[in-house]
Design goal:
- With 173 residues, the chain is an alpha+beta fold.
- The protein has helices spanning 4-12, 42-58, 80-92, 156-169; strands spanning 17-24, 29-35, 120-124, 128-135, 143-150.
- A hairpin with a 3-residue loop joins strand 3 and strand 4.
- The chain is globular, with a radius of gyration of 23 Å.
């Protein structure tokens, strides 16, 4: 699992990479930088990209709250046949029709419920791409990877996939 420096080094090895940073989006501070900065100042770039990340993560237009789960349908009036079916289902698992009426251990968070509400942002300019990939950590993370790429030599799809993998493996601390 790479630390900040190894993560930035790997990000800079992507085709077309011009600059990379790991930024705390609540404070706007760069935790680490590599390569060039679009405006010549890594700290100013970190503060500016943090504003964009913060807006995407906090505004409900980009990260709406998850809708409440639908209420379970009201059960039909019990009869001896349905009671036998329920007893069988409780013993064997899901009903024969494929629906599982058992309560889940999951508290509603699921895979998509933990971590930042936004996965990544892509900003395309006339000369380059900016990819901001949010990092999910065990603590309340507010960190993202920022990669600035040349539009002519960069591969946006490849970079997005690799940054996602880097964000999953990044060790902060």
């Amino acid at each position: 699992m790479p630390g900040i420096d190894a993560c930035l080094e790997e990000a800079m090895s992507l085709p077309g990479a011009r600059g990379a940073a790991i930024v705390d989006w609540t404070s706007g501070l760069a935790l680490g930088t590599a390569g060039q900065s679009p405006n010549g100042d890594h700290e100013a770039t970190a503060a500016e990209t943090a504003e964009l990340a913060r807006a995407a993560a906090e505004y409900t237009a980009f990260a709406p709250e998850a809708p409440a789960p639908p209420a379970p349908p009201s059960p039909p009036a019990p009869s001896e046949a349905s009671e036998a079916s329920e007893a069988s289902e409780a013993a064997d698992g899901p009903a024969a029709n494929g629906t599982d009426t058992r309560e889940s251990d999951d508290d509603g968070e699921g895979e998509g419920g933990k971590g930042p509400p936004v996965q990544d942002l892509i900003v395309t300019t006339r000369t380059g791409y900016h990819i901001l990939t949010f990092v999910e950590t065990t603590f309340d993370s507010s960190v993202f990877l920022h990669l600035w790429m040349d539009r002519d030599t960069g591969n946006l799809a490849l970079a997005r996939l690799r940054l996602g993998r880097l964000a999953e493996r990044l060790v902060l601390g």
